[in-house]
Design goal:
Elements: E1 3-8, H1 13-25, E2 28-32, E3 47-53, H2 63-69, E4 77-83, H3 91-101, E5 108-109
Parallel strand pairs: 1-2, 1-3, 3-4, 4-5
Length: 110
């Protein structure tokens, strides 16, 4: 299963998480959300992972337009990993609601 991992990082923890996960998955591409010209809705991968830091118990501002640009495809699996030093709080619920507003759902969140 091909997986595209999109990450947003401030200090490098989300990048480390993306690299570690890509190594475990084998066939995975890693793309920075903040610098990507890659249109996420054109990902040819079977699975799309979004890895980000938790900012003030929520999604980072730059991650929100990225999620809004996603388009759910038939059979495509979406998942999220919230990297934090304490509590995720309602961050994954915020992401789930945002994805639902765009017509698709996250398969899981960590």
């Amino acid at each position: 299963m091909k997986t595209d991992l999109f990450f947003y990082t401030g200090t490098g923890n989300s990048l480390w998480t993306a690299r570690t996960l890509a190594e475990e998955l084998g066939e995975a591409g890693i793309y920075p959300i903040s610098r990507t010209g890659f249109a996420p809705n054109h990902s040819g991968a079977d699975a799309v992972g979004i890895i980000f830091t938790v900012n003030i118990w929520g999604l980072p501002r730059k991650v929100i337009p990225f999620i809004n640009a996603l388009a759910g495809g038939p059979g495509k699996y979406y998942f999220a990993i919230a990297v934090n030093a304490g509590q995720v709080a309602a961050t994954l619920l915020q992401m789930e609601k945002l994805m639902e507003c765009n017509g698709f759902i996250a398969g899981s969140g960590f």
